[in-house]
Amino acid sequence: MFKNLKITCDEATTICDKNQYGEATFYEKLTLNIHFIKCKVCFLYTKQNNTLSKILKHQAKDCKGKSFTLQNEEKEILKKKLKQTDI
Amino acid sequence: METKVVLDTDKWIDNYADYLYNYTIVRVNDSDLAKDIVQDTFFAGLKSAKNFEGKSSERTWLVSILKRKIIDYYRKINSKKGQAEVRMNFYSDGDNEGDWIEERVPQTWENEAEKSIENKELKQQLASCIAALPEKYRLVFTMKTIQDFDTEEVCNELEISASNMWVLIHRARTQLRKCMEDNWFNS
Predict the structure, then answer these.
(1) Which residues, numbered 52 to 111 in chain B, qualify as contacts with chain A under a Cβ-Cβ cut-off of 8 Å?
(2) Which runs of E-coded beta strand occur in chain A?
(3) What is the CATH number for B33?
(4) CA distance B171 to B50
(5) Residue-wise pLDDT tens digits, B35-91
(6) A34: left (phi over 0), alpha (psi -120 to 50) or beta
(7) Which domain holds residue B17?
């Protein structure tokens, strides 16, 4: 039964990535943690990935909810362009 | 035959340009590109205005055109090259299949504790590392990470599978990790 719990580094990092968004299943997290026992590289990758997620969260907070608008001149140009292409 | 809908394109721009622009920039993360896509959307709307049956609101109708434009753009950048390479960091066959390729192994970050404090420079470095990502990774990555889209939304909007999305996220995260390692943590 333990054979099924064995995953490759490739799979481990995918689970780790999913987990950054809270989208890894319980089973996946279990296999990931078992993988850590023998693989220090994936453990390090995960640790750094977590750090990245933390700083990215700050970035997201700054960007989200920001509202972007076009300049009035840009809108006027667009209006003109649309008028020229009468069909 | 009388026309049912009288087109007032000035009003279109006044009413919907900002909404469409905002909708686009959140997804493509580039203001010039977003402007181009919005402009294309208005043109396409003008061309197919006679097909607009008034079943939905004008805005919904324009957004549906815009969504197509975003998918078209995404297809274009995503098909250029590199779709075949499935994983970049791991051996894809032989005894080592699925193991880390040696030179791709992450390095220890030296000053992590003192360097990971939140400050302006860190933010700038992160932003420039995100900007340096190839477009096709960046788009998916920012939608998912910065704008917090659900996996389902990203997949529907870009017409990609979930596993394809995770591959792109993985590539983006590895490149970002490396970029931050070289320019921030171990610099």
Answers:
(1) 87, 89-90, 97-100, 105-106, 108-109
(2) none
(3) 1.10.1740
(4) 43
(5) 999 999 999 998 888 777 777 888 999 999 999 999 998 888 877 555 544 557 888
(6) alpha
(7) 9-79
Structure tokens at B90: 């791991």
Complex ipTM more than 0.90, yes or no = no
Q: Does A37 touch chain B (CB under 8 A)?
A: no
Mutate to test the interface with B, among A64, A78, A80, A83 (most CBs of B within 10 A): A78
* CA pair distance B19, B7, nearest whole angstrom: 19
Q: What angle do CA A28, A34, A39 make, to 5 degrees?
A: 115
Chain A hits for B89, CB-CB cut-off 8 Å, are 10, 13
Contact A63 B146 (CB under 8 A): yes
In a domain, B71, yes or no: yes
Final residue of a structural domain among B44, B79, B114: B79
Q: Looking at the domain assignment, is residue B113 inside a domain?
A: yes
**Length of chain A as a residue count:** 87
